[in-house]
Request: fold
Amino acid sequence: VTQVQSSGRAALRRSLRTADVGRLVDDACTGEARAVSRLLSLVEDGTPDLPKIMALLTARPGHAHVVGLTGSPGVGKSTSASNLVAACRSRGLRVGVLAVDPSSPLSGGALLGDRIRMQEHTDDDGVFMRSMASRGHLGGVSRATPQALRVLSAAGFDVVLLETVGVGQSEVAVAGLADTTLVLLAPGLGDGIQAAKAGLLEVADVFVVNKADRPGADQVVRELRNMLAMDPARRERVWRTPIVKTNAVDHEGYGELLEAIDRHSGHLRATGEGERRRIRRAEAELDAIVTSAVDRRLARLRAGEDFSRHASAVATGNCDAYSAAERLLDSLLR
Amino acid sequence: VTQVQSSGRAALRRSLRTADVGRLVDDACTGEARAVSRLLSLVEDGTPDLPKIMALLTARPGHAHVVGLTGSPGVGKSTSASNLVAACRSRGLRVGVLAVDPSSPLSGGALLGDRIRMQEHTDDDGVFMRSMASRGHLGGVSRATPQALRVLSAAGFDVVLLETVGVGQSEVAVAGLADTTLVLLAPGLGDGIQAAKAGLLEVADVFVVNKADRPGADQVVRELRNMLAMDPARRERVWRTPIVKTNAVDHEGYGELLEAIDRHSGHLRATGEGERRRIRRAEAELDAIVTSAVDRRLARLRAGEDFSRHASAVATGNCDAYSAAERLLDSLLR
Reply:
């Protein structure tokens, strides 16, 4: 596993020469870990080279199956992710892991432990791990995430695990980017089913009940079954959301989980749902690029002379705020 | 005091006839409470009539002195506000109160108690009270706040109290809109001076130490004095931030507090700082209008056919995301 710190990357903000960009993309597409890391840093920092890079990557889309992994703190998400990586590796699959650290103080650092637990894959160059700060965008998933997924797919990973703490809207954001979304629950957390009721049904492609050896695990499974049976949209659904029991500490249930993911992957291909999800991911990617560009323009506008001049006119009553705003909008949109 | 609920206002979203807008503004400018309420609802809901309304209000700027009131929960902000209102009334000043309810679950509802305590002014038509949800904009102050202040000033109020719970960035946002910012502290809260160190010095025009009869009040005053004395920017400051002790429960100290506000008001006039603050408020108003307009355009873009078409092209690899985003930006900015 390769880990790269997010600090000290100021030097990367310089624009690269076109030849260097080409070589970097070539290297990353062979799966060379340092090149992949560098591309991800460029994506995260929003380098001016991104349009060039993304144009080159578009020609090499790769074939990664993106597996979203979400669940409340305490469900054993990090050990589950590590087990899932091991299960993929035993099948010879190359795995990229993208862990999104929500920057909220409520959940901050919850993924730090994950990184440590992933250390068991340290010597395996078929595993690549990276964490990104979410900065509160897109409901707990960083704006750069769709492009980071594109990098990892181009780098030839068969599976990309997109992991986030299930806080706020992050499950929904992860599901919007994933091909298959796993929702982890565990007995004894109390909020498991409550959270599930609040919208996880819409989001989960596979429910994973971890800590299956604990008392209460069967109760969680029963409640999930009842909830799925009562889903008013059930009749229209072709995919019957499976419930897989795992025990991350004892490495149990991951063969079955991989099979469930495989079945879902087949369902995506057979029904055209896979294409719909790729379009949804492209929408998120476009949205992130457009919104960032607009934000940059707004920031420039606020810092400009025009803005101060119009504000003075409004303050002195020489101009009403809407007329001034309209003129500023015109200059923004020019 | 006049209170209007924020619910059931859907009917107000219809566009008004121009004649009605004119009459409404006329009525509000005589201080007629129902008309003021209605204008504030239109401002908060973002009615399509806003440009018309704001153009009419610009001709009648009023003369309100905006007093920002901020402090952590527990400092006695609501009783202090009520006392300040009473002190203004005893001088014959008409007072508008704008309480911004942060929508954060951390502080939600903290201002509800204020409304109840303000009931003592219920029968006084020289007092107008309104609360607005912040919806997380502008660091705890609603986007509609600058325009709401404009309405209250046009309505002829001499003083407008802008009140918010001191959570996150709300102090800074309030100070950005106020002529005079009061920062409330109280003994026994522990975080008082800590919070002060974290940036309140920049924001406070007057420090108010409430619960002055409690043990520790003098200690808070001493610490504030030390902090002010150590301020590296002290020499350049013309205004020496006063520290006023109050006891809201026993209605003590409010004459002195009003005098401090008066002195600050004189300082604003004498130094040109008042004009700078009016410009700052106009900037916040412009920023809110421009940002809202851009957000509406973005929402329309996301919902449009162009967006889906480009996303499909990106998903199938027929177009790279940046080229597609650039075309979408062009159509957004057209």
The longest helix of chain B spans residues 273-303. Chain B touches chain A through 50 residues (CB under 8 Å). Chain B has 13 helices and seven strands. The beta strands of chain B are 65-71, 95-101, 127-133, 159-165, 180-185, 206-209, 243-245.
